[in-house]
Amino acid sequence: MTVPGIETEALRPHAEDAFADELKALAAADDRPRPARWKLSPWAVATYLLGGTLPDGTVITPKYVGPRRVVEVAVTTLATDRALLLLGVPGTAKTWVSEHLAAAVSGDSTLLVQLSLIHRQGWDYARLLAHGPGREALVPSPVMRAMAQGMTARVEELTRIPADVQDTLITVLSEKTLPIPELGQEVQAVRGFNLIATANDRDRGVNELSSALRRRFNTVVLPLPATAEDEVDIVARRVDQLGRSLDLPVAQDGDSEIRRVVTVFRELRDGVTADGRTKLKSPSGTLSTAEAISVVTGGLALAAHFGDGVLRAGDVAAGILGAVVRDPAADRVVWQEYLETVVRERDGWKDFYRACREVSA
User: Fold this and answer.
1) CA torsion through residues 301, 304, 305, 311, sign
2) From the CB of residue 33, how many other CB atoms can be counted at a distance below 10 Å?
3) Per-residue pLDDT tens digits for 38-58
4) Fewer CB within 10 Å of terminal CB in the chain, N or C?
5) CA end-to-end distance (rounded Å), the chain
């Protein structure tokens, strides 16, 4: 919402706004066939997500660092009448990929559904009282708008949506129609409509998807970063983007601390040290890439506002402790054991050990 007379700047611009120049350059260079109502061809959509250099020299920054085939399957799914389900553990960039896919395909990532509002439309009560029920008094839901305009709708955390509401999607995805029982009418999807859903496979027990609904989706599993280098790259890119949006200065020597945060998270997540020599207990949390990004961003803010601008071990230690120790009893034991058996003996990590011991005391 904008307030008259007050200039506002979005804290987090939508993907189509933040990367408008890249999308414009891709559209200008894109001479490949496009599905109905798509802003870009499937090739250009994949290039937008994975990055590349256009013939005119324009550099497209990677939005997703991971297997190329995963992105290609996701994009080609949207080019058919099959809906797309992005599945993975927390922090595998499901929402991020969903947003950028919608921005590249439809030029609009804002048709986002909130929990139980998959099918429910609202009403303009002034019109409703003045003229009675009718299409003019109807305030369409995001899915309804996407169906009518041939665009891409997004549904977040599908397994957290009540089962009866999930079932509404079966009609939308199979019949490509959305009934409006109050009016005795329906909205039929036009070409170009599709839907991207995300689901966390750690939340299977919340509201498990029925087999009937799952069959309506083509499921693409987003894996955790395959290598430490990939994860360091992802964290560094996102921290840089977040830092610029928050007007934080660029951290000096930040790469070394990012690498240490990623190393700690990967070792505890995998239950073994990077060299494979020492088996470790894993804490109850996921220790995802998203959490690593949060820890480093918080450390960057500490270094900028309460330090000398250099990202140090003491700036990330508290964030790591908060991410690892979710269960105060069991996780604290896991963390203390990791500090004493691994971190304490690791060359070049003495400052990190001291900082972690200080906040863990």
Assistant:
1) positive
2) 10
3) 999 999 999 999 999 999 999
4) N
5) 45
Q: How many CB atoms sit inside 10 A of residue 135's CB?
A: 10
Q: Are 270 and 326 in contact (CB under 8 A)?
A: no
Asked if residue 198 lies in contact with residue 157, where contact means CB atoms within 8 angstroms, the answer is yes
CA 320 to chain centre: 21
Element (H, E) at 69: helix 68-78
Contacts of 159 (CB under 8 A, 6+ apart): 199, 200, 203, 204, 206, 207, 208, 209
- Letter string b/e over residues 47-62, b meaning 16 or more CB atoms within 10 A of that residue's CB: bbbbeeebeeeeebee
pTM of the model: 0.84
Residue with tokens 């009560």: 125
8 Å CB contact between 140 and 148? yes
Q: How many CB atoms lie within 10 A of CB 9?
A: 6
**Amino acid symbol at 291:** E
Sheet of 194-200: strands edge to edge? 112-113, 152-155, 194-200, 83-88, 217-221
Percent above pLDDT 70 for the chain: 86
**Closest-CA residue to 22 (of 38, 45, 3):** 45
Query: pLDDT tens digit string along 53-77?
Result: 999 999 999 999 999 999 999 999 9
With beta carbons less than 8 A apart as the criterion, state whether 299 and 257 touch: yes
Residue 285: C-alpha distances to residues 239, 264, 291, 317, 335 (Å): 21, 13, 10, 17, 12
From CA 201, how far away is CA 199, in angstroms rounded?
6
Q: 3-state class of 325 per DSSP?
A: coil
Question: Does pLDDT of 124 surpass 80?
Answer: no
Q: Flag whether pLDDT at 120 surpasses 60.
A: no
Phi, psi angles (nearest 5°) of residue 136: -65, -30
- Residue-wise pLDDT for 145-192, tens only, equals 899 999 999 998 888 877 777 777 888 899 998 877 666 678 889 999
| CB burial of residue 1 (10 Å; 0-12, 13-18, 19+) | exposed
Rounded Cα distance, 301 and 283, in Å = 26
CA 137 from chain centre, in angstroms, equals 34
